[in-house]
Amino acid sequence: MQGMMLNRAKELLSDGTVNRVLGWQAGEFVYDITPAVFETEEELDAGFVYNGFCGNNLSKYLVKETLKDGKILVFLKPCDTYSFNQLLTEHRIDREKICAIGIPCDGKTSGEMLKAKGISGITGISEDADNFVVDTIYGQTTVAKADALEERCKTCKSKKHVAYDELLGEDGEILDSHRFDMVAKLEAMTPDERFAFWREQLSKCIRCNACRNVCPACTCEQCVFDNPKSGIAQKAAADSFEENMFHIIRAFHVAGRCTDCGECSRVCPQNIPLHLLNRKFIKDINELYGDYQAGAEVGTRAPLTNYTQEDVEPSIVYHREGK
Amino acid sequence: MQKIGVFVCWCGSNIAQTVDVQAVSDALAKEPGVVYSTNYQYMCSEAGQNLIKDAVKEYGLTGVVICSCSPRMHEATFRKAVASVGLNPYMLEVANIREQCSWIHKDKEVGTEKAIILGRAAIAKVQLNAPLQAGESPVVKRALVIGGGIAGIQTALDIAEAGFEVDIVEKNPTIGGKMTQIDKTFPTLDCAACILTPKMVDCAQNEKIHIYSYSELKEVKGFVGNFSVKINKKARYVDENKCTGCGECTTKCPMKNVPNEFNLGMDNRRAIYIPFAQAVPKVATIDPNYCNMLKNGKCGLCAKVCGAGAIDYKQQDQVIEEKYGAIVVATGYNPIKLDKFDEFGYSLSKDVITSLEFERLTNAAGPTSGTLLRPSDGKHPHTIVFVQCVGSRDTSGCGKPYCSKICCMYTAKHAMLTREKYPDTDVYVFYIDVRSPGKNYDEFYRRAVEQYGVHYIKGMVGKVAPRADGKIMVQASDLLANEQLHIEADLVVLAAAIEPDKSARPLATMLTASMDTNDFFTEAHAKLRPVESPTAGIFLSGACQGPKDIPDTVSQASAAAAKVIGLLVKDKLTTNPCVAQSNELMCNGCSSCEKVCPYGAITYIDKEFRMPDRTTRIRRVASVNPAVCQGCGACTVACPSGAMDLKGFSNSQIMAEVDAICQMK
Amino acid sequence: MPNEVKAFKPKIVAFCCNWCSYAGADLAGTNRLAYPADVKIIRVPCSCRVNPMFILRAFQRGADGVILCGCHPGDCHYTTGNYYARRRMTLLFSMLDFLGIEKERTRVEWVSAAEGAKFAATMNDFVATVTALGENKRLEDLRCKE
């Protein structure tokens, strides 16, 4: 796949269709993948990669990139295409300046996941349908995807691209992912258990803002957490309240707009399952207002900017059973 | 820091009885920014107001807090007072220590403590108040009336009478609306045409009124006082200015079998036609769906016979742009389609007809020249069954949940007129309830029953089944006698429910005027503002707001006209200064705010920004039209970046109040 | 002197829309229908003006309960504001509950300008509920307590 992508990128660069390519490149280690913009074929040859570590959702970077002149090529995995559509819906990116190529994804892993499996000295990765084949300085190791996939990939919601100009490889289907199982499990707990769960999780928060910075729904010109006038501006997490407040507000700000791409949890250095907060909102929205998948189409009205006269009353929260 | 004055009112003993006003003014004097604090028996009295005015002048106050009765009571009074001495009226806040404190708490200590906290919250808010200026927007002295039925006609005539220009947009080739199809009107039995057509002529002759017939609204932009509207004038292939309405073409056109909508398809017209003799404007129209010349270029007969040379096969739709200060919606109603009601056999027999079709059958200008004859065989019917509430008060989903209001009365009229003209006819009326409130209405209905011998039967018709011999079997229950009835009828007349015209829904979207679930326009207040839409500058006339008979329609039409005139006589409108405002530097242009705005006050502009690196960049940002914004604040919460804020109720002001209330010591 | 245990008095913030609920509160006053002084009302133009941040802010600063009152659905002065408020608050309350924060500390109630009695009854009930829950410990900011 990397070869196909590289060839197509070079073609489109050389025929002038695009003047830049947004893709991935490795950092100091092969598993340290960062998004990168390539402007020449030489740069592509030198740095462009696509492999099992390339989890980054590139759609957010288009916000800044499409303000520049010229057209940019972007590679989008199925889940990234939802963010892409959502950004289009919110007029955050300029479709005219983008050439979007859909690429297949069979789930991603990370250096951290592999290290946890006892694999070290990683120098490369390839994959087949069920396994990652990891090259290390000690030789080649095979690890089953089922064991090494990122959490979000285990509950992948869609292998189908909802937006693209062209597609490399086969398009997939929308999956029945059971992605709300963990939310449902938490809902079934008592409030005290839930409080304990979230206290334990959220108290790990160091307010590094990585979740916000990577989130494709967080593209505000100025984030409320950075605005001294908002009343909730940036502060180090001094006590339990700060963490609660930050994460509730962040989840609320993206409610109905979050496509559940899972970047927040992927980048959290403290491994807080932040996506569960977003999924709680998505699950509530689906249950209370009808199924809604942000980014499935361009131009849809987000559930929080919509209503019906028959909507449930907030008191439903008190009446839901079991808790 | 503001220089704030605090004025605590005793309200006689209303406040002073359970609140230690001296303690309140003493405590609030210590709050940051407070330079003067006092209390007085009646702050709203002239002496009290002078106390405030003097203090503003003497201490150079920049903010004022009044601790008194509800701001709903006297906020305007106090704002006016401070404005008279040069302080911006929006630099004043009222702490409600009467309704929300002294009147509900009996313990003086508790009341005093709460009053102090409420005062602190108001002070905290005033610290962040900014002077606001009520804006002004000019008023275009011209009104638009959408719909040329009796509602639109009456509204237009009344507005023109007051001296303002008014345009009527009517989608049909003639104005007049439903009333032109009606034979006689209850409860006086005047001939509808006799009272309507003079008004139509008045419209045509009035210099202030311009009629755009055969035209529809295409686009509405702008806001109260300043709407700009695009009207699509459909091609009628006849030059309106040349056509004399002689009607020669309508007798020569070879296309004779076009269903005549004026008679509800019960007879035919030609492809070129004038809807009826008294049409206004009396101008022919070519129906492009039937005209041979327009369809395949063969014929041209009408052009040959037209002495005025008015026929123009090349005519195109024309878009007219005009500006208006006010828009009146008068789109009216239609009877519902009855195909879903199999039990009434409407589509099974020509002799099952709607009440409006019955009107045409009894009208001298109708297909039978006013003789009541069965549509199927042209014979005189001897037994007629009227069925009321067909699709009205129907919660099954087939029909409409509401009462159509006019059916009881017109059915009584039909029954009475039939009995009068054809005394040998048996007339049955099936009803759920007879609703006849209205001046002389109940008397009218009773006359039908008592003097004319109409058989009124309380009960619903279960089945209407046409028989091979031409009779129609009506099976019904008589609820009072508790028995099943089987009537052999010659004619069955269904009082179909009425619904808003189909053009109303897209129009509402264009106007950002709200509608109810039945697609009737909603009024600003059901009781106190019945002819205004909640959207400023949009007024409602006639059945577009709810089912109405002619007297109600005309009253409401004149009421709407009065409201329009009240708006148009103003040269300028003052606007509420507490409106939303977008901080362009923070706006993402994401359109969330626009989606929740009920008034369409938010638009987006592409704006150029200078970046710190001296480059420029064009971003889409929200822009609030302060003349349209009503200040609800929905957008402020929808905005993810906090760029949208509400003047007078800003995020920081509300949070300052929250803080003051929560941080009680 | 022995330390006297002071009875717990909750801090309650009530956001009331200007057109219905604030007027309903005024009517409660006019009719002298008592409810505890723990309730302090903040006037907002519409229930849709209330940002979830305001509610969290109130808890942060030590409020024990926050209630939002607006026009009945369908009666909004601005025609649709309370519909948006209803969705926002439903999701917010559900999220608070999901985090294990006592859901009874938040409430939405529709109170018309004619419902003074309902306003007073609602406040009495809400204060009783929050008093029974005791002090808000799960969402407060200790630094705001000085």
TrEMBL record, chain C:
It holds the Pfam family FlpD. Keywords: Iron, Iron-sulfur, Metal-binding, Oxidoreductase. GO terms for molecular function: iron-sulfur cluster binding; metal ion binding; oxidoreductase activity. Residues 12-134 form the F420-non-reducing hydrogenase iron-sulfur subunit D domain. The keyword Hydrolase does not apply. The keyword Iron-sulfur applies. This is Hydrogenase iron-sulfur subunit. It comes from Candidatus Faecivivens stercoripullorum. The lineage of its organism: Bacteria, Bacillati, Bacillota, Clostridia, Eubacteriales.
